[in-house]
Design goal:
25% of the residues lie in helices and 27% in strands. It is of the alpha/beta class and 471 residues long.
C-alpha cells in the first residue's frame, strides 16, 4: 500500500488538486449522503455486481441525482455497489458534483481493459485517471471512483475528474475468490495538502489488512478515513485493527466513516444462493472533545436510525446506523478547526437530517419519519413493565437506558451516573458488540442475553412495586 497525494496523481494530466469543502478546516458544516443498499449480489469470475440490474439502476441513479440536486459535499456508496453504466450515464447527462463537492463511489467489478474503454468514452465529459496496472483479462478490479471538479494547471478552466483507486489487498475466504481473481492496485490516494488542512483517504474492505502502523501515523492527525465494505463479518478482529491503529493516538481530530451493505445480504454464484445473515455495522467514529452528547440531539438521531455508543477503549464516540437498507443525509462539523475562534469551535459531530427507504411500488426513495430500532420486538421480555417502558421511550430512548440500569443496580457512583458515557448499555468494548436496550438489531448472543436479563429484571421490579404488600 502506497499512500499517494492526489496532487501528484493529477499533475501529469495537467490538473490541480481540488479544493474540497469537506477538507476546509473552517467553522462551516458539511453535508454527507450515504447509501446502504439491500444486498442481492452475483459473484463470478468477472467479479461482483448487483443481481437485480433494473433495481440497481433505479436506486443508484436516484442516489446520484439526489446528491447532485442537493449539492451534497460528500457522497459515498459501499464496495462493489455502484453500477458503471449508472455512473457513466449520470456524467454524460451532466449529473455530477459541483466545484468543492466529491463523490466516493464503491463501484461494481470491472476489467482493467474495460476501464480504459470508459476513459475514452468519457473523454469529452471527464478525465479518467488511474494507475497503470497492465492488462490481465482473466482478472477483475475492485474500484473506488472519486468524482470531482478541479482546475487545469494552464488556467483554461475546470474539468470533471474520475479518479479510480483499486483495492490493494484481497479478502480471505475458503474459495480464494479475490486471491485468485482480483487484479490489485498499489495506491491509496490522499486528498488535502500535507499541512494546514484536513486529509481524506479511503480504504476498500480488506485493504485494512495492509494498513500498518506507519500508514496510521501518516494520516490520523486531522484525518477523515472512509472505509467501504461488502463484508459479512465487519466486526472480525482483523477488520477492526485499523480502527485501533487510528484511534489510539493522542488528539481529537480523527474521524472514520465505515459504510457496509445492509444486513442479510444474499449472494448468488452459479445459480446457488447463499444467505449471509450478516449485520451491517455501518458507523461513524470520532474523537471530538466538543461532541454534543445532550439528550435532544442524540434522541433526534436515534429517531432517524443513528444510534450512539461510547467506545470506552479509545475514548471515542461511535455512532451506528440502522442495519436496514436506507439512504442517510447528514450534516457534520469538520474533522478539525484551524483559525476558528474558540467560542464557535464546537465540533458537535454528525447529525442525521433525513433518512430515506425504498418504496418498491413507486420505485423511489421516500423519506422515513421513524426508523425501526427493534425495541418493540423485545419489550415482551419486560412483562407488565412493557407499556411504561414504551411510553418512556416515546419521550427519550436514553431515559429507558437509564431506567433499566437503575433496575439492575448497574450505575456508577456520583452525580454523573446518568451520562451516556457512564451507562454500561451505551458502551462498546473492543468487540464492538452493541448492548443498547433501545437499539436491538445486534443479535449476537452476548447482546441478546444482556437485553433479556435487564428487561426481565425491570419487569420483576415493576411487579413488586405494583403490589403494595410486597413493596
Amino acid at each position: 500500500m502506497l499512500i499517494t497525494l492526489v496532487a501528484d496523481a493529477l499533475t501529469a494530466h495537467g490538473l490541480a488538486a481540488p479544493t474540497l469543502n469537506v477538507l476546509t478546516p473552517d467553522v462551516n458544516n458539511y453535508s454527507v449522503l450515504l447509501l446502504q443498499p439491500h444486498g442481492q449480489i452475483e459473484a463470478s469470475a468477472a467479479g461482483v455486481r448487483n443481481r437485480d440490474r433494473a433495481l440497481a439502476e433505479d436506486q443508484f441513479g436516484q442516489f446520484l441525482r439526489r446528491a447532485h440536486e442537493l449539492q451534497v459535499d460528500l457522497s459515498i456508496t459501499p464496495e462493489y455497489s455502484m453500477p458503471w453504466d449508472v455512473l457513466i450515464g449520470a456524467i454524460k447527462a451532466g449529473t455530477a458534483p459541483a466545484t468543492g463537492k466529491i463523490w466516493a463511489l464503491g463501484c461494481e467489478s470491472i476489467q482493467y481493459t474495460r476501464l480504459k474503454e470508459i476513459k475514452q468514452d468519457l473523454a469529452e465529459r471527464a478525465i479518467v485517471v488511474f494507475e497503470d496496472l497492465g492488462d490481465e483479462p482473466a482478472r477483475f478490479t475492485d474500484p473506488l471512483a472519486y468524482v470531482f471538479a478541479t482546475e487545469r494547471t494552464d488556467g483554461t478552466g475546470a474539468r470533471m475528474v474520475v479518479l479510480v483507486q483499486f483495492k490493494t489487498h484481497p479478502m480471505g475466504d475458503d474459495d480464494h475468490f479475490e486471491i485468485n481473481g482480483l487484479q490489485r492496485g498499489n495506491c491509496v490516494y490522499r486528498f488535502g495538502p500535507p499541512a494546514q488542512s484536513i486529509g481524506l483517504i479511503s480504504l476498500i474492505c480488506s485493504d485494512v489488512f495492509g494498513f500498518l502502523d506507519q500508514h496510521a501515523e501518516a494520516v490520523y492527525d486531522r484525518g477523515l478515513t472512509i472505509h467501504i465494505q461488502l463484508n459479512p463479518k465487519p466486526r472480525h478482529e482483523q477488520y477492526r485493527l485499523y480502527r485501533d491503529r487510528l484511534l489510539r493516538f493522542q488528539g481529537d481530530a480523527t474521524e472514520l466513516i465505515c459504510l457496509n451493505w445492509a444486513r442479510n445480504v444474499c449472494e448468488w454464484s452459479s445459480d446457488h444462493e447463499k444467505r449471509w445473515s450478516n449485520i451491517a455495522a455501518s458507523a461513524w467514529y470520532l474523537k471530538s472533545d466538543r461532541f454534543d452528547d445532550r439528550d435532544a440531539p442524540l434522541c433526534a438521531n436515534h429517531l432517524k436510525g443513528f444510534y450512539y455508543t461510547w467506545f470506552r477503549q479509545h475514548r471515542a464516540h461511535a455512532m451506528f446506523f440502522n442495519y436496514d437498507p436506507a439512504m442517510f443525509l447528514l450534516q457534520a462539523s469538520k474533522v478539525a478547526h484551524l483559525g476558528v475562534a474558540a467560542a464557535v469551535s464546537r465540533r458537535r459531530g454528525p447529525q442525521v437530517t433525513n433518512t430515506f427507504t425504498w418504496n418498491s411500488e413507486d420505485r423511489k426513495w421516500i423519506e422515513q419519519s421513524e426508523a425501526r430500532d427493534g425495541f418493540d420486538e423485545v419489550l415482551a421480555e419486560s412483562g407488565s413493565a412493557g407499556d411504561e417502558l414504551r411510553r418512556i421511550c416515546g419521550t427519550s430512548p436514553l431515559a429507558v437506558e437509564r431506567v433499566v440500569a437503575l433496575c439492575a443496580g448497574r450505575i456508577t457512583a456520583g452525580e454523573s451516573w446518568h451520562d451516556v458515557r457512564s451507562l454500561d448499555s451505551c458502551m462498546i468494548d473492543a468487540t464492538e458488540i452493541i448492548r443498547r436496550i433501545t437499539f436491538c438489531q445486534d443479535t449476537s448472543e452476548e447482546a441478546t442475553a444482556f437485553r433479556i436479563e435487564r428487561l426481565r429484571r425491570c419487569g420483576h421490579l415493576f411487579e413488586i412495586r405494583r403490589q403494595e404488600e410486597s413493596f
